Amino acid sequence: MRRADKKDEPAVYQRVVLKNASPYHYLKVCLVVEDDSTRLSAVELKQFIITGLNSLYGEVGAALTFDLLKYDEDTLTALLRVYSRGLVKLWSSLTLLGSYQNQACAFRVLQVSPYLLALTGNSRELQLD
Amino acid sequence: MSADLERTPRNLLVSERSSFLDPKNRISSQLVQLHFNYKVCVLLPECSSAPSHLDSALNTFSSFYLIRNLPLYELLDTHFLETVRHGGVSGLSYRTRLDEDNCVALMPNGRLSLSLDKDSFELLGVEGKPSRFNHRAKSRFVVCVDLTDSSMAPGGRGHQRLVTGLTSRLPLKTDFLMSLPAGGGASVQALLSRYDWSEHRPEVISCSLTDLLCPSPLTSDPSSLTSDPSSPLTSDPHRLLEWLGAVHAAVSCENSSSSFLSSLVCPEPNKKLSHALSVSVCGLLSHQDVQKLIQEIRVYLSVSPPGPASWASVTLHGFVDSPVSWGGEHGVLRGGDNFLSLTMFPDQSYLLHLAGGAQDTCPP
Amino acid sequence: MSVFMDLNVNYTADKSRLQSLIETAAHLGFSTVAINYVFEPTAKKKQEIPSPTPISELMDSLPVVQGRSRPIRVLNRLTIVMSDASHFRPTAVEYRRYDLLAVQPTTEKLFHAACMIYDVDIICISVTEKLPFFFKRAPVNGAIERGLVFEVSYSAAIRDSTMRRYTIANAVCLMETCKGKSVILSSAAEKPLELRGPYDITNLGLLFGLSEGEAKEAVSSTCRSVVLHAETRKTASGIVHTVKSCSQSAPADCEAPPAKRARSQLTE
């Protein structure tokens, strides 16, 4: 998956091109629950996502590791990190999760990127009025 | 035919190390090829407040304009073309999405790029070519014209054709962001007066960080990053970028690799910095202002007393929905990432990372 | 690619819920939605085809699409669930009140007829039961050539894990036959929390056997072509456009029993 065109010059100049080398993907997600006073702790949120993986992909899916990098309990907004090869599975489990403790719910996936940095500069968030 | 669920769309990362002193360094042309800058984030370690000249560079980013419902033929107006020919005018359609809507970009060199859906393209009746990122059917087209070319002078053939297209056949209107060269405000007053517009100052957010876990080469011998290619941060740029991302997104790296919630850790070995300063500027930012900022940071690095953690990082985010980036056509598949990250050191060497997404040409 | 569309949000008599469905769709980035009226005739007696509530009666002002400055576009769609050939009445004027016309055939014979003959826009694939028949290549290709599209809806897969199995299995089965062409993915949502964003649906499409590009087309370009197909169908190949001219006498017409009304309009 890697292509590198190194120019070995005596100077310090070096250029490397990496294709599809990003080990992880990052997701910014927000959980919306029918009763908007519902609060989850970070551990509960992660458990909930694992339930989703388990119900769609079984035990093997539940073993897919992902990280809850950051979580805001007030807005139920979280940053997730997953190995790139697990992205489609994690994302589709989030999409198909429809109830939390017998209440309707939905994960809104706000942004997905192979770079965590990109999640800090999304021009679609620019609000001017 | 079942798709491989482990694959993700293509992404590209170019990683470069060089020096401002190297006569062959291409940093300024690389910066320009990002075309439209949405946000610049600066990270200064061991710094609690920016020195005055740097602070002023951060706070004097020129303002930009938002014009609502601008008919596109106005961009071909005689007076406006005059302003464009002097250079430095850039503009981008606002509240339009590149994978869905018609998008417009006016580059500082006077090139106008329209990314149009099939219907609009056929109505406009001006020469263009299918988008490189069409899937199966040709559903999106790109029209590129050089407004400084003689045929685009008022009355010229190309000009007439495009004006007729944009007035009678495809009366395209869009909210438009525009930034002008210093002192260019007067030249567009006539244009602005005809529409609903507002002036916006880029938003500056400054944040002081304390007890920041930082990967070791950056705390002891930062210049080794550019002189020693085997350093783990240099050989695997994703580690450095992830750490920078974590700092800017305020994600804690203080986990153990076995913890339940998150196993994100700062690359080893690492050390704590007592404080650091993170500043971001957000809006439609001009290249001149960005170059000036980078220049000031270079000065800052060269005059500040040599310390164990003297380096600075600048991240420059492009607009997701810009039809051009990295010197070529840009597209959005599920995210239109285009950004660069520049880490600078006191000896004038730097590490540069250029990132592109699924629908980008390889960064320069 | 064109704008994102969800051509199936379920009609409900609960006006505020319908409004909230449309608002959520706009907020998620959909530029067009179609309100779906489901009509399931029984073989016994003739039933009245529902007539759509005008959009202006549903909402005073339409919500703005996320990140854009234009309001969402709302269409009306009729889906006829067919268990008998008599359920589809090619000349019914009631159909003309809808922007989009869909059928959900429940037998192989009807599926074949829908693909090859019926003048409709969308053929719905059942997602709530095991497929009662296999998709044959000939009718599927015939439908594609006639500009029809197949619809897979995903909200049943959110509601229930058994339905989820059927949804995925039936979708994969369809994709193997149609090779990812002429497929639209829509919600069939009854509640706002059953709606998902366009990129979520694109990703979900990968599970159904679509490629990234095909999946994105299934919520954008393919939806656009079916809306165009519907417009040309209603205007006789886009050449003749008929408009009902008796707007004066319309209120009186509405009082009449449906069967009579239909006949009077047919003979106009």
UniProtKB/TrEMBL annotation, chain A:
Entry GO MF terms: ribonuclease P RNA binding
Example of a GO cellular component annotation carried by this entry: nucleolus
Parts of the chain that traverse the membrane: none
Annotated InterPro entries: Pop5/Rpp14/Rnp2-like (IPR002759), Rnp2-like_sf (IPR038085)
Gene Ontology terms describing biological process: tRNA 5'-leader removal
Recorded superkingdom: Eukaryota
The protein, known as: Uncharacterized protein
Taxonomic path: Eukaryota, Metazoa, Chordata, Craniata, Vertebrata
Automatic annotation (TrEMBL), chain B:
One annotated Gene Ontology cellular component of this protein: multimeric ribonuclease P complex
Any one Gene Ontology molecular-function term assigned to this protein's record: ribonuclease P activity
Single biological process term from Gene Ontology: endonucleolytic cleavage in ITS1 to separate SSU-rRNA from 5.8S rRNA and LSU-rRNA from tricistronic rRNA transcript (SSU-rRNA, 5.8S rRNA, LSU-rRNA)
Protein's UniProt name: Uncharacterized protein
Species the sequence originates in: Perca flavescens (American yellow perch)
Pfam families: Ribonuc_P_40
From TrEMBL, chain C:
Signal peptide: none
Localization (cell): Nucleus, Nucleolus
GO biological process: rRNA processing; translation; tRNA processing
Record keywords: Acetylation, Nucleus, Phosphoprotein, rRNA processing, tRNA processing
Coiled-coil residue windows: none
Short name of any one Pfam family annotated for the protein: RNase_P_p30
Location, primary (coarse class): nucleus
GO CC field: nucleolar ribonuclease P complex; ribosome
Subunit record text: Component of nuclear RNase P and RNase MRP ribonucleoproteins. RNase P consists of a catalytic RNA moiety and about 10 protein subunits; POP1, POP4, POP5, POP7, RPP14, RPP21, RPP25, RPP30, RPP38 and RPP40. Within the RNase P complex, POP1, POP7 and RPP25 form the 'finger' subcomplex, POP5, RPP14, RPP40 and homodimeric RPP30 form the 'palm' subcomplex, and RPP21, POP4 and RPP38 form the 'wrist' subcomplex. All subunits of the RNase P complex interact with the catalytic RNA. Several subunits of RNase P are also part of the RNase MRP complex.
Similarity remark: Belongs to the eukaryotic/archaeal RNase P protein component 3 family.
Protein name, as recorded: Ribonuclease P protein subunit p30
Lineage: Eukaryota, Metazoa, Chordata, Craniata, Vertebrata
